[in-house]
Amino acid sequence: MRKLLIVLLAGCLLPVAVSAQFKVSFEGNGQWLTKDVNNDVFTNNDDTAKIRANAYLKLDYTIKNWDFGVQFESYLPQALLNYSPDLKEINVGALYVRYNNISLGLDVTAGHIYEQLGSGLIFRSWEDRQLGLNNAIFGGRIAYTPVNGLKLTILGGKQRIGMGFDFSDGAVAAANLETSITDIFKVSDFDANVGFSYVGRYEDKQELYPDLPTMLNAYSARFYIAKSGFYLGGEYVFKGKDPVIDMRGQINSDALNTGNAQLINMGYAKKGLGIDVNLRRMENMGFYSQQNLARNKYNTGVLNYLPALTKQYTSSLQNIYIYQAQPFFQYEIEKVGEIGGQIDLFYEFKKGSLLGGKYGTNVALNASYWGSLNAKTDFDTKTYSADLFSVDVKYYHDIGMEVRKRCTKDLSFVLIFLNQFYNLMYLEAKPGIVNTNIITGEATYKFGKAQSVKLQAGHHWADAGYKNWAGGALEYALNYNWSFFVSDDYNYGNDDEEERKHYYNAGITFVTGSIRVAAGYGKQRAGTLCAGGVCRMVSEATGFNLALTASF
């Protein structure tokens, strides 16, 4: 039936391909995994485990107020390594029809829906192919804007948890009200808005768990104000009673706890100066469309967006110990949620000043701190009571400084220092604490019309865990179309001599217009891969990779 649906959809859309309103985008990523003496990641011994590929073909058509779209997905012969086993074969990944009439203030969608309410603490459905994540809601969405500055949105359906028409057991409904005080009262000297959201999940498991409520409700309220470069925003979320999910993923239906989250964002920004502060407190804020999906390693069934509020670094040596948000209650180790925050400071020394020089100098400082809520746990009932603001166990901190400087018209450099504290026991259930100091330098030299060379080198000192690393990368852009790179991270300080490995990579990229092709070979380090503060675990692997993206 699904294959027939694919054929019918393709047949209906092909006749409109000649229209200028028809858009096509394609993304394909393939792996040919190989074995070496230090690497055995295969789940079986046949050749199908070695060759893996993900491909996405998206077709969109617009006519007047109507939008039509379909996304086909292929995971043949197998999905990329560490992607969910539910992603397989060829099927429709997403399908939608949308009617949007601005003059009426009406926006209606049927099919797979992507939406975010507020910051996402209460609800977000989104796709991230790098993470293998697609949490779209299949159902309906209506947004109505009766006057400028007032918008009401309601939506409902079931969440995608595998391929396009594999849905969660639970049904989801949401409502959202956004109010712009600035637009309603037509003021121009400041910005102000408020918002309110409701999300409910219905799932009947009382045959197995008689004490388990069938309805889980969550509510949020938020505000934002800005004036003369200053801004302040806040959000509060309350989630009803939800069962405790233990570290084995088992439901404890006789242990119910409510959840809540508080988020504050404030800062000041003007030309050459920026200060941003994020503070967050969460307890029991895991929110899933299906209860037995809680804490799965593929982020399947997640209804809300809980990114780690730390600086996102690009160097591989800075991403060995990555903090992930800790919203769960784990009674086994008396771990209750998280509390903490981060601060970012940006300053630009002006051109012509002593520290700015001819081209100016940019300096960015960042610091974050995260810990467990101070709470009293009742091991018999698996419930707890948590203090509002006090910290029990320290999870993580980082302190970083980044300096960006252009020395000449063609030569620039970046210097980054990072200090980290990482609690292995509470973040990875492993004994120990890791303290790191990491220095990374990067220099870029441009010559000719489009040629450039970028050299990056760094060192990672650690007193535990994997211990010391050294790494570097070299990139060469030949012209607007071709570029090449080589890199290597060497874990020379590992206490286990057999684990003192080189994680090397080399590749080539070709770009023309909207087409990009990249190919490479190398060894992937086991650990955490993150995108936008959301992470997944990856295995060590060696092999070839090929990526193609195109749009028309």
Question: What does this molecule look like?
Answer:
This protein is mainly beta and 552 residues long. The chain has a domain at 1-36 and 45-78. The chain is built from three helices and 32 strands. It has helices at residues 2-13, 181-184, 424-428; strands at 22-34, 51-63, 66-75, 89-101, 106-113, 115-117, 123-125, 127-128, 133-134, 137-147, 150-160, 167-180, 191-202, 215-227, 230-245, 251-270, 273-283, 329-330, 335-336, 338-349, 361-378, 383-406, 411-423, 433-447, 451-462, 469-477, 482-490, 502-512, 515-524, 527-531, 534-538, 541-551. It has a 24-stranded antiparallel beta barrel. Strand 28 and strand 29 form a beta hairpin. The longest helix has 12 residues, at 2-13. The two termini are 30 Å apart.
Break the fold down into its secondary structure elements and pairings.
Blueprint: H1 2-13, E1 22-34, E2 51-63, E3 66-75, E4 89-101, E5 106-113, E6 115-117, E7 123-125, E8 127-128, E9 133-134, E10 137-147, E11 150-160, E12 167-180, H2 181-184, E13 191-202, E14 215-227, E15 230-245, E16 251-270, E17 273-283, E18 329-330, E19 335-336, E20 338-349, E21 361-378, E22 383-406, E23 411-423, H3 424-428, E24 433-447, E25 451-462, E26 469-477, E27 482-490, E28 502-512, E29 515-524, E30 527-531, E31 534-538, E32 541-551
Antiparallel strand pairs: 1-2, 1-32, 2-3, 3-4, 4-5, 5-10, 6-7, 8-9, 10-11, 11-12, 12-13, 13-14, 14-15, 15-16, 16-17, 17-20, 18-19, 20-21, 21-22, 22-23, 23-24, 24-25, 25-26, 26-27, 27-28, 28-29, 29-32, 30-31
